Amino acid sequence: MESLIHRAQAGDTAAFERLYRANVGRVYAVCLRLAADPVRAEELTQDAFVRAWEKLGSFRGEAAFSTWLHRIAVNAFLMSNRTDSRRSARLQVVGDPIEVETVSRLPQSETSIDLERAIAMLPEGARTVFVLHDIEGYQHGEIAQLMNIAAGTSKSQLHRARKLLREALDR
Amino acid sequence: MSHERYAQLLNDFVDGRLAPKLRTELEAHLDQCAKCRHEVESLRSLLAEAGQLSRSIEPSGDLWPGVAGRLETGKRRRRPFLRPRYAVAAVALLAVAFSLTQVRTKKARERTAPPVAVQQTGTGFVSLTEQWSRAEATYERAAAELQTALDAVRETLDPETVARIEANLEIIDNAIRESREALASDPDNLEVLQLLAAVHEKKLDLLQQATRYQRL
């Protein structure tokens, strides 16, 4: 892996493609759960890898490459959210049919499908915090920094998400 | 401490964030309170299930060509798989939207102008309507092509997926119809025009996504 990173840092796109192949599933998964929209998740995944390529020179190996890449993907989602907020507000007028479709792109295991569907239906802020904290293992301090909110807000969004999920799952 | 106060601490309890003294106090409450015990069990079950979700999901198509293209050119492209004809329609829509803004600005300036100025604005509006019709026709042709591609693979798809796609298409088509009606009653309303364009884009996104299911 290290040699691939060094080669990619030197401009070797074939080495970067191998890094892409090894990590695309993980990046797409977080993008899909955050965006609840397969088309947007594909855009975000592509954006994340392009940004990673552009920032490779600054990767020093303090964290694992996959962790570094994951953080870039989350940032790509949050940045795109800020940029697209006005457009999204307009689209809310017609509902969000793609959201329903999202579930079909997620793994169809018997135990997870209801939870995946319920996560996709959460309000965006609550969904973002739930995905980052309870699925991806981020701490409230990190989430607060990434989302530019107070840690207390992250906590209350998480509690709200859990409450809504338990209601949706009838627990 | 009241039951309500203990109930507020349950999330922190399952996350292991309570100070030892408070944790001991809450555990004593849980021994007495079936409702709070149920809440804790429910939260733990949810977290356990969330922890078992797959961390890796493969996208439906290969995204690498789109990434590689941007590495080579350094250009930032917003939508993967965007066909050139869609881009043509998008540019046409932008042109119409820009022209409508000009007309609206001009109208505002000419509110006190003599009738002949209003007549000139009206002449310009007809031309804009034609531009919009051409742009929308391009969207409709693209959607029809994708619909044909989808029809060709329909029988190979899971019936539940087909039903979901059709339900989504119905919602989008209703939105297009309602936006058109709104535009007909207020032809130079830029917001409605943008909304209509966005709904057309949403339909193309959905159809593109649906036609990619054949590769799953």
What does this structure look like?
- The complex is a heterodimer of chains A (171) and B (216).
- Chain A is mostly helical and 171 residues long.
- Chain A is 77% helix and 0% strand.
- In chain A, helix 2 packs across helix 3 and helix 5 runs antiparallel to helix 6.
- The N and C termini of chain A lie far apart (43 Å).
- In chain A, 42% of the residues are buried.
- With 216 residues, chain B is an all-alpha fold.
- Chain B contains nine helices and no strands.
- In chain B, helix 3 crosses helix 4 and helix 6 packs antiparallel against helix 7 (115-153).
- Chains A and B meet through helix 2, helix 3, helix 4, helix 5 and helix 7 of A and helix 4, helix 5, helix 8 and helix 9 of B.
Offer a quick outline of the entry.
The complex is a heterodimer of chains A (171) and B (216). Chain A is mainly α.
